Amino acid sequence: MEVCITHCAGRFSIRPPTKKPIPQVSDWVGWRRTPVGDYTAPAYVSSVLAVGSSPTLRVTWTIDAMQVRDELLKSLQSAKVCLADPSPSETGHKWPTERRPRKHQLQAIHACVWLGDSMLLGDDMGIGKTSTVLWCLQQSGATRALVVCPVSVKFNWKSEFTLTLGSKWATHVIDGSSNQRAQQFVEAMSFEPIIGPPGYDQDQDPRSPEYLAIIINYDLLRHLTPRQLNQLQRFVAGQALICDESHYLKSRNAERTKLVRDLAHDAGHRFLMTGTPVRNLVDDLFSQISLVRPQIWSSYRDFARRYLVERPVTFGKKTVTRVVGSRNVEELNAVLNTVMIRRKKSEVDSLPPKVHTYPEITLDATTRKIYNAMADFARVELKALTSDAPVSVFDPRAKSAIEAAMRCEQIAQGFIGGIPQPVMDRLDAKVLREAEKVKGRPHELIFPQAPKLTWLLEAIDSVLKQGGAPLVFTRFNAPMGWLQGVLSAKGINAACLHGSLSATEKHEVVTGFRDRRFDVLIAQVKIAEGWNATRSRDVLFLGRDWSHAINNQAEDRTHRDGQTGTVNVQIPVVRQTIEVMHHRRLQAKAENADQALRDLTAQQIMEGL
Hints:
Elements: E1 2-8, E2 11-14, H1 23-26, E3 32-33, E4 39-42, H2 45-49, E5 58-61, H3 63-84, H4 103-114, E6 119-121, H5 129-140, E7 144-149, H6 154-165, E8 169-173, H7 178-189, E9 211-217, H8 226-236, E10 240-244, H9 255-264, E11 269-273, H10 285-292, H11 300-307, E12 308-315, E13 318-326, H12 329-336, E14 340-341, E15 354-357, E16 360-361, H13 365-383, H14 399-412, E17 415-417, H15 421-426, H16 429-433, E18 436-438, E19 441-446, H17 451-465, E20 471-474, H18 478-489, E21 494-497, H19 503-514, E22 520-524, E23 538-541, H20 548-555, E24 567-570, E25 573-574, H21 578-589, H22 602-608
Parallel strand pairs: 1-5, 6-11, 6-14, 7-9, 7-10, 8-9, 10-11, 15-24, 16-25, 20-22, 20-23, 21-22, 23-24
Antiparallel strand pairs: 1-2, 2-4, 3-4, 12-13, 17-19, 18-19
Helix pairs in contact: 3-4, 4-5, 5-6, 13-14, 13-22
């Protein structure tokens, strides 16, 4: 059979010689059969790369289609050359401020042109993705930009526009109450640049910005009115959409992803950026890549069939399909290379080293009694789940048992969020009298004598005496306020960064630490993204997340562009506790950034207690 590939209206197409489907064409990346029986595909390179040969199928190209194909492949090759250029030229570029791109940033700026001024920038954290994307925005020719980002970095984006692109960009941050947001929309939508007479040089006129950026956080999108969403969609039509920390969009069915997808529909340029494009498994990539290059795959099922290993998992009477691995990685990488730029820190301009140490800590007698009592309770809960078939920690039946195991993790870190009555009955009242209540959290207790808290306070004191500024991360919030109070009693000014703060409050905490108004910054590990703390060279973990990628992102608040000294990361591990298993799994998962929890079973948790 012979098929001919034609090109029209930005797409490749095939009209089959018969009404029967052609399985070989259906297997090409991005190709889909239309209701009338034709096959179509986006003209970008995924469709080109996947056209293969078959002894039963002869493929020919029209002259127009061949020219489009060759131009696309030439663009890809040019982008690849730019990324490998050892001495990228600044000729033809105008940098609006004193900030200048480093070599690896200039390489990405050049490559972005060949990728159609749309891309996913997946460079490692800390090597300047924000300024790179803003320079790419400038070269794209867009005069409007919509920035969608986590709430913690909205005001950081406002600062970055000024630092990178100067006063010619006005920025409107959408924030606050519904009435405040309504007024902000009125101001943004009424923005007009100054239009001067013939010969007028706007670059020399400091009175008014020429371009406009609207900055809004992901979660706020669902609180906008239909009219406001429509205004944003018209604002970004033909212009630029920037999605910071785009892994927030990994779930294709999440409301935030659907809202961003609607906003992106008519955008002329799409810039996504994240240091962790894959947080769990490669299915995280589907929504992100599809936002940059719509219809690069014919459907999610097509993507899953080609690249995912799936396994049925039973939850009670319900069976669902879970992604457990990946396949056809070489083909997937070829597709990703048409849209994503990703460099490791080791591949770009050198940063100072990052050194990890793992002090081993032993529980004291009092905390050990509490830990053992909780561990025994957790084992009873977990044992009820164990059978010949392993039970996933995601199984609803495991919820109570996993919560008990989590409390063991908390005790190892020196506190607990609620003690079940069976455990209370086993504990001596004298043991509990040594605990302190957490202010504002009536069901949580701190054990001030706990070795891990003692170690942390000593480590903070040591760093401060050496003139440093410690950055402390904790998985749980309960110890934050207590730790801040203890440091304050010693005359040490500490600030806490957690999810309950507003965007303005988070910005104030981060800038306060950078400006040396605070000696110590205590942060929740899960919101450690999108902000810089290069003032610090000492990272101390009270507790880590179960995801290697999230922990690494926290560390890289300090190990990033602008850091001049070695970053010391100290991660204490409490012996003979669940932390040992946690640590081993994170070490094992570090290479592919899988969640350490993804394939964990109740049996393994019980063994780790």
